[in-house]
Amino acid sequence: MSDNLSQLPDSSQETQKRMRTLLLRNAYVATMDGHQREIPEGGLFIRGGLIEKVGPNHELPPSADEVLDLKGHIILPGLVNTHHHFYQTLTRAVPAAQDANLFNWLTTLYPIWARMRPEDIFISTQTALSELALSGCTTASDHLYLFPNGARLDDEIHAALEVGLRLQASRGSMSLGQSQGGLPPDSVVDSEDAILKDSQRLIETYHQAGPGAMTQVVLAPCSPFSVTGELMKQSAKLAREYGVHLHTHLAETEDEEQFCLQKFGHRPVDYMQEVGWVGGDVWFAHAVWVNEEEIQTFARHECGVAHCPTSNMRLASGIAPVKAYRAAGVKVGLGVDGSASNDGSHLLAEVRQAMLLSRVQEGITGYSLSNDPNRKLMTAREALWLGTRGGAAVVGRNDIGSLEPGKCADFFAINLNRLDYAGGMVHDPVSTVVFCQPVRVDYTVVGGEFIVKEGRLVSVDEDKIICKHNEAAKRLLAG
Ligand SMILES: [Zn+2]
């Protein structure tokens, strides 16, 4: 921003911003539109944060307020992260939780998380969103379900606004402590009345309903084993009064299935139907342990799934039936999941993991012995589709996920001329960014604003974030 512009009154600055144009040309563009159009030498023309034109160089306007020659780069729609717990960046690779299954991992980490303060939520949000931005993500859903020592979802929302990525802020909750037969210690659960009041306050304060929203609020009781059925029902009622989405963990592990059968007398998906948690406004994280009938239930009710392949491998949870979901017409997006079970926030890496894990599943179900020519492996483009269009559909947004006129100018670009891609980029640039080792991106743009430019974060100071984050992580572990 020029000095002149920064001295203008706010309303004029806003008007300038609304009208500002940006032209990108000479790139390989993968639009992820309905025809999966790819343009070998082209770009985007952006006005006021929206895409006005996508096409080959000769179809683009000749000038703009800012022009970027992206020769040798690939441009892709911004990735949409459908599941995360930003605060867990503070407890990556904690030795006691490195080699545990979900329930043991949780019970090891709950007491550490219970020490978090508001400033820890703030710094961990900036760490996770910075990592995500550097991996091509432009919209991130986060699921925050612990609010110890005065921490609030507001801390996360304010931190995200500084970074500049779009945020689907999920107001999580836990109300079923150990004394009530739940998994979390009583010290990290809240009363249901307080949870619902705070949920309503957050929706009324922050939720933006229309296209181009930077902040949306989602109601997200943590999981069947940490809240009561009554809170699930009341949360759904409140969400539907305001038209916000619903999100929770579901069918992540086999022991969760057993917990639900014993405690509620239902399998997890049946239990969701029992408490009114099915519909196009609901998406579930993981959904690994489901049967064919339950896949059809998701399809019939238009529920979405956040597939988190790295986390499912890390915690030995299992393999989600993504191919069956897709065949049934279930919406599937990708999530890195919390950083204590990944332990990174690299969404392009998750695209690659989704493709590879799907192939592992093919392998163990007889792919090499099959003579069926219709049995196909997940392709790089399909995996990218999950990370873009799939994710946008799962979080209920049709203003993002592809590069088309009228959509938000959310995209990322990578310089293909690098050692990591040598050889591949001359054959197939789109597949190369998925098949080859994931890299840091060179540009990430949200609503026409640069979040990453020439490989560096624009809105926040990376070195300061690392320093503050390490201090906070050390303090939490010290107790
Ligand atoms: Zn999770």
Describe the structure.
The chain is α/β, with parallel strands linked by helices. 38% of the residues lie in helices and 20% in strands. Strands 1, 2, 3, 4, 5, 14, 15, 16 and 17 form a 9-stranded mixed sheet that branches. α4 runs parallel beside α5 (153-163), α6 (192-206) runs parallel beside α7 (229-242) and α13 crosses α14. The chain is globular, with a radius of gyration of 22 Å. Zinc ion is lined by residues 83, 85, 143, 249, 285, 337-338.
Key phrases:
479 residues; alpha/beta; 16 helices; 17 strands; disordered N terminus; binds zinc ion
Number of DSSP helices? 16
Q: Strand tally, please?
A: 17
CA distance, first residue to last residue:
44 Å
Helix fraction by DSSP (H/I, runs of at least 4): 25-40%
**Ligands and ions found:** zinc ion
Assembly annotation: single chain
Radius of gyration: 22 Å
**Main sheet overview:** 9 strands, mixed
Classify the secondary structure makeup into a structural class: alpha/beta
Topology readout:
Elements: H1 3-6, H2 10-19, E1 21-30, E2 38-47, E3 50-56, E4 66-69, E5 73-77, E6 79-81, H3 102-113, H4 118-133, E7 137-144, H5 153-163, E8 166-173, H6 192-206, E9 215-221, H7 229-242, E10 246-250, H8 254-264, H9 268-274, E11 282-286, H10 292-301, E12 304-307, H11 309-314, H12 322-328, E13 331-334, H13 347-364, H14 380-394, E14 411-415, H15 429-435, E15 443-446, E16 449-453, E17 456-457, H16 462-478
Parallel strand pairs: 1-4, 1-5, 6-7, 7-8, 8-9, 10-11, 11-12, 12-13
Antiparallel strand pairs: 1-2, 2-3, 5-14, 14-15, 15-16, 16-17
The chain binds zinc ion.
Residues 83, 85, 143, 249, 285, 337-338 line the site of zinc ion.
